[in-house]
Amino acid sequence: MRNPERDEIRDILNKSKRIAVVGLSDDPSRTSYMVSKVMQDAGYEIIPVNPTVKEVLGVKAVPSLKDVEGHIDIVNVFRRSEFLPETAAEFLEADADVFWAQQGLANEKAYNMLKEKGYPVIMDLCIKVAHAVLK
What is the DSSP letter of 47? Predict the structure, then answer.
């Protein structure tokens, strides 16, 4: 598994506007909340994807990626690595461009499934850190 080069990641972040965050918690002490808040404050539209919450960061949550209306630029995943293939399969059914698994998350099966279809895949990298370093 290999992430895109820094320039490609920078381009992805610069072109993207909508980020669907799978596993976004409504608990402000959770990493998913903190990272998504920073990205929202940076101007990205955040779409919470979590069947167990109603709203996060002032935005109505949806239970799954298939419930997101419209195009998704980045799917940012905060689910354990063993769930990445399931999330990747859902990603393939959504209108989305980039699959991004947060720092500490990687799964070769999910990576290969998406790369075979030609999608950019980023794993084991914090989107907030990448944004701060590359923007």
Answer: E
Tokens matching residue 1: 């598994």
Residues 110 and 83: beta-carbon distance below 8 Å: no
- The DSSP H or E segment spanning 20 is strand 18-22
User: Tens digit of pLDDT for each residue in 9-34?
Assistant: 999 999 999 999 999 999 999 999 99
CA gap 37, 84 in Å, rounded: 23
| 120: three-class secondary structure by DSSP | coil
Residue that has been written with the tokens 């590359």 in this structure: 134
Cα 99 to the chain's mean position, in Å? 6
Is residue 19 within a helix (H) or strand (E), and if so which, with residue range? strand 18-22
Q: Which helix (H) or strand (E) holds 60?
A: strand 59-60
